From TrEMBL:
CDD domains: HNHc. InterPro entries: HNH_5, HNH_nuc, NA-targeting_endonuclease. It comes from Variovorax gossypii. Keywords: Endonuclease, Hydrolase, Nuclease. This is HNH endonuclease. SMART domains: HNHc. GO terms for molecular function: endonuclease activity. Residues 81-134 form the HNH nuclease domain.
Length: 187
């Protein structure tokens, strides 16, 4: 059983990965406007109604949209950068030699070196193997004669949710993948 539910706003914009317990609370309070996904993620059973002799139960879908408007436009929020999300964005490929490596063999590499004020941002970070990272050192790719084989970019809202959820159910992955921007590396 996958423990996370994709929470959307009423318009279908991803808001958060929430726990099964949080999703049940939204069902119980009538906050769920619509749901999507194949088969229930889980069915929770409660006590018996003495008058009707029926056990209460809540079927939780893997994708739920909540009533009401979100307080902020999440398309204006830049996703946080983590090493694991960066490596997944770059498909475990070194930006200099184009070799594909295991996660433990890759490093986060600053295009504009950190020693020169290069920020820890999506557009200044790429995945690099240790050999290429050491060879480039504290130089720019141009100075080192090591052109990038791909350009860094800020993931879209939908890409970020795919990057965050490592073990996503197939139906939820498909739902998010249908909404990826054209040209996304995650397609």
């Amino acid at each position: 059983m996958h423990p996370h539910v994709l929470q959307l706003d009423i318009q279908g914009t991803p808001q958060a990965w929430i726990s099964l317990e949080q999703a049940v609370l939204h069902y119980a309070t009538g906050s769920v406007a619509w749901e999507d996904g194949d088969l229930p993620l889980a069915t929770l059973r409660g006590g018996f109604n003495v008058a009707r002799g029926v056990q209460s139960r809540i079927e939780v879908a893997p994708i739920i949209a909540l009533r009401g408007a979100s307080k902020i436009n999440l398309f204006d929020v830049i996703p946080s950068v983590t090493k694991s999300k960066l490596l997944r964005r770059d498909r475990y490929t070194c930006a200099y030699c184009a070799g594909v490596f295991h996660e433990r063999e890759l490093q986060c590499e600053h295009v504009l070196p950190e020693s020169r004020g290069g920020p820890w941002t999506w557009t200044n970070l790429v995945s690099a193997c240790a050999v290429c990272n050491n060879r480039k050192a504290a130089r720019t790719p141009e100075e080192a004669g090591m052109p990038l084989v791909y350009l860094p970019y800020v993931p879209s809202r939908y890409e970020n949710f795919l990057l965050e959820g490592r073990n996503i159910r197939a139906d939820v992955h498909e739902w998010l993948a249908k909404r990826l921007p054209k040209g996304s590396r995650l397609q």
